[in-house]
Amino acid sequence: MDKDLILLGHGSGGKLSHQLLDELIIPTLSGVSVAGQNDAAVVEHNGQRLAFTTDSYVVDPIFFPGGNIGTLAVNGTVNDLAMMGARPLFMSVGLILEEGMSRRELAAILASMREAADGAGIAIVTGDTKVVPRGKADRLFINTSGVGVVENGVEINGCKARVGDRVIINGTIGDHGIAVLAAREGLELSTDIESDCAALNGLVAELLKEGDALRVLRDPTRGGVATTLKEIAIQSGVTVTLREESLPLKNGVKGVCSILGLDPLYVANEGKLLAIVAPERADAALDRMCQHPLGRDAAIIGEVTGASDGRVQLETAVGGMRGVEMLAGEQLPRIC
């Protein structure tokens, strides 16, 4: 394989993505340390702490059960800010349109973006639009950037996990990835599976009431729960142990993954967060989640069990233990 070529796997959020970031992009552009590689940057200006993030969306198809590329772009930006404990304020929207795209479809996507932004309390304040020739894109790509404010005393970071901390997720995993896959491939499913696409800032506002006990927040999008926890384990220098029997999964998602040979731990989510919480406040944080509409199926799925160079392991349903690594290659391309 020619190592000079960019592959689909470099956009998976998994091992190849991290290699590209660590070997080329980050050293060239910023040199930010591993400890600082979070969902958004936190910067200070005139005594105020601001979170800043940017993202691009190339999901295929652009409409899927439970959302579309527009709702995905707005909610994804809101969530990246919220994972730093920030209150989202403003965002930009850049549209790259392919010649021949339907104005009716674009109007529907723009309307859903405005609705999602209003619902999350973030204002779309600037943007840009470009059109490329037919065949040079895939109908519509969207780039967004977002700014939010981080209140004094809020310190959320992927490097803060400590031995004994509990790992909590706010609901079932893999819903988004399987919904997009079903729409893309025209799968006839016996159950309705919809994307979990949602803005999580309201749920995060409740979790922030736990104060210093809330160590880490991260939304497990590309690469899924497994890759996201591996990132956190590396940042914090710890071992994370998951319990297979505690993982919340919808039967439909479990069935599709079983038939297609997919591991739900690596399937993308767009309305889920992982919270790493001090052990003495884990039950209280779980209760807060369960009382919120986006946390009714929340569960404690594991804990930080030791210091290491960044290990993740899964205690299986039969009592064995297996290592969990970052996603290798591209399990489901064009998922966000």
Draw up the topology in text.
Layout: H1 15-29, E1 41-45, E2 48-57, E3 63-64, E4 67-68, H2 69-82, E5 87-98, H3 103-120, E6 123-132, E7 140-150, E8 166-169, H4 175-185, H5 201-207, E9 214-218, H6 224-236, E10 238-243, H7 251-260, E11 274-277, H8 282-290, E12 299-307, E13 311-315, E14 321-323
Parallel strand pairs: 5-6, 10-13
Antiparallel strand pairs: 1-2, 2-7, 3-4, 5-7, 8-11, 8-12, 9-11, 10-12, 13-14
Helix pairs in contact: 2-3
Keywords:
2 domains; 336 residues; alpha+beta
What does this structure look like?
The two termini are 26 Å apart. This protein folds into two domains: 119 residues, 2-Layer Sandwich (60s Ribosomal Protein L30, Chain: A); 158 residues, Phosphoribosyl-aminoimidazole Synthetase, Chain A, domain 2 (Alpha-Beta Complex). It is α+β, with helices and mostly antiparallel strands. It contains eight helices and 14 strands. The longest helix is centred in the first third of the chain and has 18 residues. Helix 2 packs parallel to helix 3. The strands form three sheets. It has a seven-stranded mixed beta sheet with strand order 9-11-8-12-10-13-14. The protein is globular and about 55 Å long. The mean pLDDT is 95.
